[in-house]
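Researcher: Quick sanity check before group meeting.
Model: Go ahead. Protein one:
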Amino acid sequence: DITAQTGIKSLDVTIDCDNLDARELGTMGIPARFDLCNIEGFEDTNGTMHPAEDVREAISALGFPIEDAVKDKPSIRLKIDKMFTRLLTGFPGNNNFILTVTENNGLSTTKTLKYYVLFISGSMGQQCRRLTIWLCWQQYWMLRLMRFLWYKERT
């Protein structure tokens, strides 16, 4: 649980992993650093622009609460989603998530959530990594399709 007596002004998340870099995160539509209170679009290391709407979907798919579910709230619960832990299984080593909470009164606290993944050697490890990335993409595109169908049904 994250608490802020005067409400949460920003909740910065920095992803710092041994084997998951900004390039790979970018291909999944996730920046290496983002504010859960104010999700913005970004340009990845390949020069591809990811609009804020797509970034919101990608971060939500990992189980993170975003924007109105976080901003100005006195407390929130960060639940590590199964999809999130599945993503990390393809990236052995240290996976650190540096969380910086800034309250509306300006006070800040930084904590690091550490998730360690055991190394799987050889081609099996590489296959797990590819499968993990593929599964993440599948869920991401399924969410986009569901959103499209929902909007189409409403109009």
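Researcher: Fine. The other one?
Model: Protein two, sequence then structure:
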Amino acid sequence: IELKKKQAQEELELKKKKEEEKASAVERFNQLSNELNDVIKKSFAVNGSTIIENIYDDVDIGSLRRLSDIAQHKTPSSVVIFSAKSKDTASIVIAVDDSLIKKGVKADELVKVIMPVINGNGGGKPQIAQAGGKNISKLNDAIEMAKKIVIEKLS
């Protein structure tokens, strides 16, 4: 009976901990989402299109994708390049508006070019693609490379 009580207590504590972690993740995403307008204000224009770029700390790839969706919704004709650094991983999400795909800017092609820079892998579609890699120190180089390619295609 004591063993069952102890197991039940441990399960309850684990469930409570998971709920707290989930609430914390939701709160963190809401905070990032609220800060998105400031990120968009730092974007820059190229021939009527917008490049939105930001590097986050310890943000999971799913959150990067959701943030890129929100940014694209708020900013038509945009390329969104969001990335994150964690302890041992660099993550990148690139999202491209349909109007820019017609101009030759494709998220999956951009990811293919920059993946080797971060010693990573990934893929996706012309509208959205992602990559993850181990070479965190080269994340800025990968982002700059992607921006340079986008600027060339839009100029």
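Researcher: One line on it for the slide.
Model: The chain has five helices and six strands.
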